[in-house]
Amino acid sequence: MTCQTDLFKLDSRLVDQNQRLLQHLNTGRTCSRETNQLLSEIFGYQLDPTNEIRLPFHTDYGRNIKLGKNIFINCNVTMIDIGTIKIGDDVIIGPDTTLLTTDYSTSKKSQL
Fold first, then answer.
1. pLDDT tens by residue, 21-53
2. Range 20-48 burial, b when 16+ CB lie within 10 A, else e
3. Which of 17, 37, 74, 107 is the most exposed place for a label (fewest CB within 10 A)?
4. Half-sphere exposure of 87 (CA within 13 A, CB side)
5. What does pTM read for this prediction?
6. Distance from C-alpha of 88 to C-alpha of 30, rounded to nearest angstrom
């Protein structure tokens, strides 16, 4: 039980950090290099330089989004990544798109 509680606390801290980074990303004035750095922090890995994500961009967790190369994500896209979202190479996502995933595994149910 302690291990699951520690995992839940870690996830909560990442969600809080993600929300702070997104707020800065979507309301601040950043150059493309700063935008890519903030997105890399949100995703937990270095964003490929061939990818372009137009702002505003929204996600609840961020760490479960896996992007390939040469991806264009237009403005006002929302990704709810409780489960994993994987986007392959050479993909275009239009404006105002919402991608939703869930993960209701038995380990998560036992936390309720």
1. 999 999 988 888 999 999 999 999 999 999 999
2. ebbeebeeeeeeeeebbbbbebbbeeebe
3. 107
4. 22
5. 0.80
6. 26
